[in-house]
């Protein structure tokens, strides 16, 4: 599901300003390996800031509404209760994220939905960085995909088990504010509520 004009210009601008002001808090992104996260620059290059509590109240109502709509539309079951895991990711020149799924299997409260909201400085100073969303079971190199442009204030919501990747970002400068920003928010199903 692609939802344009998701939070509105003023709120998207607030998110951008918040991210830029907190550049120092962004740390290299990790990928999951068993129960541990580790940095693997052959698989993923970007930076993340999971400490976004102060801006969550601005966007949480829109996220919760979109999640409530997405659950029946995407045919998810057993998601009567859930919690959100938000972070802001920054992708500068050369950043990418190879094909992966977001589901962390064998965990008590698995991720069931992935939401990504894009924002960036205007005029846009990067190219690339499209999200490729593959069909279930696709292998690297598959041509079974939909490609989504990371447009200002566009949100994408999909089941976390679908394979996806972020194509390489090319940016005119190395300055932080020129990069591709994405607010990622995972919906974790709270286990034990099977009906
Ligand atoms: O930034 C995106 O478009 C997707 C990011 C992603 O796949 C992830 O953080 O797991
Ligand atoms: Fe992902």
From TrEMBL:
The entry's keywords: Dioxygenase, Iron, Metal-binding, Oxidoreductase, Vitamin C
Q: Does the keyword Oxidoreductase apply?
A: yes
Transmembrane spans: none
Q: Which InterPro entries match?
A: HIF_prolyl_hydroxylases, Oxoglu/Fe-dep_dioxygenase_dom, Pro_4_hyd_alph, Pro_4_hyd_alph_FE2OG_OXY
Q: EC?
A: 1.14.11.-
Molecular function (Gene Ontology), one example: oxidoreductase activity
Q: Which cofactor does it need?
A: L-ascorbate
Where's the Fe2OG dioxygenase domain?
A: 82-189
Q: Quote the PANTHER family the UniProt record gives.
A: EGL NINE HOMOLOG-RELATED, HIF PROLYL HYDROXYLASE, ISOFORM C
Protein's name in the database: 2OG-Fe(II) oxygenase
Q: Native species of this protein? A: Variovorax robiniae
């Amino acid at each position: 599901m692609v939802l344009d004009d998701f939070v509105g210009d003023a709120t998207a601008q607030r998110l951008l300003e918040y991210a830029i002001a907190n550049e120092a808090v962004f740390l290299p992104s990790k990928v999951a390996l068993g129960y541990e996260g580790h940095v693997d620059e052959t698989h993923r290059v970007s930076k993340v800031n999971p400490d976004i509590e102060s801006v969550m109240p601005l966007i949480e109502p829109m996220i919760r509404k979109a999640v409530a709509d997405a659950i029946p539309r995407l045919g998810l079951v057993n998601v009567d209760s859930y919690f959100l895991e938000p972070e802001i990711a920054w992708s500068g020149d050369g950043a990418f994220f190879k094909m992966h799924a977001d589901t962390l299997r064998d965990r008590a409260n698995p991720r069931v939905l992935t939401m990504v909201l894009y924002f960036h400085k205007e005029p846009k100073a990067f190219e690339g960085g499209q999200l490729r969303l593959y069909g279930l079971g696709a292998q690297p190199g598959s041509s079974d995909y939909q490609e989504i442009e990371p447009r200002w204030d566009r949100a994408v919501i999909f089941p976390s088990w679908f394979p996806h990747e972020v194509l390489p970002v090319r940016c005119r400068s190395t300055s932080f504010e020129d990069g591709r920003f994405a607010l990622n928010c995972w919906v974790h199903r709270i286990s034990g509520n099977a009906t």
